[in-house]
Amino acid sequence: MSGDKTFLLGAGCQKGGTTWLFRYLKESPQFVRGYLKEYHVFDALDLESEQLTRNRITRKAAEAVAAAQEGGEVSAVALHRLSMYANPQLYYDYFAGLLMTRPEARLTADMTPDYAMLPVQRFRAIRRNFANRGVRTVSIFLMRDPVERIWSHLRMQADRFPAMFDRPLPEVLRDRHADASYAMRTRYDRTIAVLDEAFEPDEVHYGFYEDLFTERRVGEICAFLGIDRHEPDFDVRRNASARPPEGIPDDTVRLVATHFADVYAAVAGRFPDVDLEALWPSAAYLR
Q1: Where does the chain have alpha helices with state H?
Q2: What is the pLDDT of residues 205-253, one digit of tens each?
Q3: If you count DSSP H runs as helices and E runs as strands, how many of each does the chain have, helices first?
Q4: Is the C or the N end of the chain the one with fewer CB within 10 Å?
Q5: Cα dihedral sign, 174-180-185-189
Q6: How far apart are CA 12 and CA 22, in angstroms?
Q7: What CA dihedral angle connects 161, 167, 173 and 176, to 10 degrees?
Q8: Which residues contact 255 (CB under 8 A, 6 or more apart)?
């Protein structure tokens, strides 16, 4: 197997810094990017909850076909994504092919945060299929304070779809934090267990959003991925949502943290050298 060709399967978490990291990686001359940061192939295939993703992939492909029939401009991206959804072998061929486009290319990536919800069998299949093509597969999973992750998730949705939110966001956080769309993406304990089972220890990098933006952490990630470090821009944050003037009431922070108490416990147990309360202030509400 070629030791200098690596595929990065980004496993999230959503609102955990993956967009900033992707932007950083794509500035490397050793990184070869495709046409997207997030391809949403395997979440669409495997997860019943992701019907909207399936609908979006098929709708855009149908629009591309209709455009072709009318002699208009055709979206090759939409058709290609549907082809990978229909036949995942094309997904592996596509990324393996990217790594062959220039001699200095060492790394390519699909950084779809919803992959955090994939089953272990899918991760194993991805790893195996790339190995068959002479490509090493690794994963990065970045975690964020569960309260802040869901809070940021809500703010992003409110920015994009303001009509969906007719109440103050702290109230929405209090009432919806346990909804599957938020809770499933905050089950770090489950994702860690799946990644630990699917990959060898040196094939997974775990990190925390709260200390991602440092020279040390960026250097560790570059070493893990097998690329040379280049200068990061810590002043630019992508997909950052506007923070509303009101904060989160203490009783709501406690409510959300308590709901995810198993997540805090699992992360603290898996990473005993991490001062979790220093990184995640909401952990103090579980004393």
Answers
A1: 18-26, 42-46, 51-69, 76-86, 89-98, 120-131, 146-160, 169-176, 180-183, 188-198, 215-225, 250-259, 261-270, 276-279
A2: 999 999 999 999 999 999 999 999 999 988 865 555 545 446 899 999 9
A3: 14, 4
A4: C
A5: positive
A6: 11
A7: -80
A8: 174, 177
